[in-house]
């Protein structure tokens, strides 16, 4: 009988982390949700042997890791080495998702407008080291184009998914952008099967045990592609049944090393939850509304031995928590101090 909670903690690098720097951990997870611009740093830090804000900043500014809209057309951290093949594999489905959002919001962007705005963005970035969304908005206005915030956001996402923009240098509180060609200096070219095999490997090496439905959800790809990726790995993936559901585990995954007594202050949108559809493995169904809403917003959460048991508030001056069960009492001071040590450097 497997213990899926313990194995997920191990392979997500939340206990006994194996990696020394941010680039290694981002590469291991393949893509790390980075919806919250500041808290993405904590998501990486808590998974490295020796958390370092300076190491994260260096990797981010040098382009070893980048932040962009990719899987499910949402924010992730990926490595520059994975950028080329991952964009080619995942961008078409994300573009389809983005077009669906635009249609539901009754927004139509003609090809002529798309090309014009792309040219303005490129010209604006070319004149500076990196730019913010506000800089792009100002550039549009200077060229005589007035549009609402949603439409501007769509143009930025389209520029990312079309291989034009990636993240610029790290800013204390807001996203910056630069030209992909200025940030990505080398990348790997793969066939479609090679890309599917690598993405599948990255997913299951870092999130086992997980189901097919988990992988489909996380990747944003269609079920056929995900099944193909699993098929390509062949005997490297073995299956275990837990509560009448079939979970896949990669043969190189850690399955031993868990010790009781571990606690975590997890950031919002952390891969420990967002990386799965089967969140009930670590989150009791009756408490899920405390961890996320129905619109895809995930909150900062507390885990005890891998089980989600409360909420915390990252931007308070002191540790403040709200446990789902009022009888639960755990000591989180060590976790809070580790978080604070990283947070004070977020400038």
- Helix content estimate: 40-55%
**Overall shape:** globular
CATH class of the largest domain: Mainly Alpha
Structural class based on helices, strands and sheet pairing: alpha+beta
- Spatial strand order of the main sheet: 9-10-11-12
Q: Which assembly state applies to the chains in this document?
A: single chain
Number of strands: 12
Taken as a percent bin, the fraction of beta residues is: 5-15%
CATH topology name of the largest domain, in short, is Arc Repressor Mutant, subunit A
Number of domains: 2
State the fourth-level CATH superfamily of the largest domain.
Winged helix-like DNA-binding domain superfamily/Winged helix DNA-binding domain
SSE string, helices as H and strands as E: HHEHHEEHHEHHEEHHHHEEEHHEEEH
Largest sheet: 4 strands, antiparallel
Cα distance, first to last residue?
Answer: 46 Å
